[in-house]
Amino acid sequence: MIIKSFELNKIKINTANIILFYGKNDGEKNQYFKSLKKHNKEIYNYEEKEILENSDNFFDKVLTKSLFENERVVIIKRTSEKILKIIENFTLKRLEDTIIILNADILDKKSKLRSFFEKSKEFICVPFYQDNEQTLSKIASNFLREKKISISRSDINLIISRSNGDRATLFNELEKIELYCKGGKKISTEYLSKLTNLIENHSISELVDNCLAKEPKKISNILNENNFSNEDCILIIRTFLNKSKKILILSNDFSKNKNIEKTISAAKPPIFWKDKEITRKQIMLWKPENLKKLIYKLNDIELQIKKNLSNSLQVVIDFILEIPLTDTNNKI
Fold first, then answer.
1. Which residues fall within 8 angstroms of residue 91, CB to CB, at 6 or more apart?
2. Are the beta carbons of 271 and 263 closer than 8 angstroms?
3. pLDDT by residue (tens digit) across 70-85?
4. Chain segment 179-234, per-residue pLDDT in tens
5. Cα 33 to Cα 30: distance, rounded to the nearest angstrom
6. What distance in Å separates the CA atoms of residue 11 and residue 25, rounded to the nearest whole number?
7. For a Cys-Cys bond, which of 96, 101, 309, 328 suits 290, CB 3.0-4.6 Å?
């Protein structure tokens, strides 16, 4: 069964328990997920890979519910055709006060997963199409009106152009304007140009840092909190390469002087104070020879994803999830 994204508020638990979201509009998807939190829903995030590796454990968790829990929403991120066999098993099982949402990227008409949900009378399929300029303009105008912020039509157009057609980026820009205008402060076109679209991708940097520090829980949290796309993969791998090369230099210095504090303090460029602790951990965890192997592997992965961008996210996610399990005293 297919419904439009604007009809999502009509869905009730126990009338439609399993829903497929597909498409590139992560901003609109995230809006819906945030609205669920506001309505006191318990949100659980899973990677598809986790479920495929231990489906029995997943069934037990989803089908067992505490008397003290609110209605639950289980979000399975980055889903593909592989999840279909798992979902088919749920037709034989009873879900109480639980919605399962499969969050997928673009699925073509030949997709078995998409076809299964579209033809089903029991489950729901929701396509999320990319926003156009008219939709984004309406979103921006409504937001500014609600916050009682007055700016010109040309300035609204500027914000929309800076968002690159992405609803999530647009909200990020609007929230920056809201913060600036608190207390009735007015914003000029000149300052608006400086304020908007100065986004640094802290999520990717934080993800890579925690991979190199072998922090599986933090890695999992970052992956669950961010909807990385295939297009992000090159940036993730490039960030990984740059940080690995910097740690390699420091690791070589440490292997010579055997003094971690001296290695940190002598680093060029200097390491910012808040990054010293995680950098210290990375140096202690990785030997130079293993960092070299990691760099070679990253170069191979970059070549792989350039050849096949459509499968790049799964390749990168698999690699990231394996990092904490590798023995860096032996081999990658």
1. 122
2. no
3. 678 888 888 888 888 8
4. 888 877 788 887 787 676 544 455 788 899 999 999 998 998 888 877 787 778 88
5. 5
6. 20
7. 328
The per-residue DSSP string of 307-327 comes to H-GGGHHHHHHHHHHHGGGS-
| Cα–Cα dist 23/190, whole Å | 35
For the entire predicted model, the pTM comes to: 0.55
Cα separations (Å) of 188 from 143, 163, 192? 18, 19, 6
In order of their start, the domains of the chain are 5-127 (3.40.50.300), 133-195 (1.10.8), 202-325 (1.20.272.10)
Residue 43's Cβ-count burial label (10 Å; 0-12, 13-18, 19+) is middle
For residue 111 the two structure tokens come to: 């997709």
Sheet holding 124-127, edge to edge: 42-47, 72-79, 98-104, 18-22, 124-127
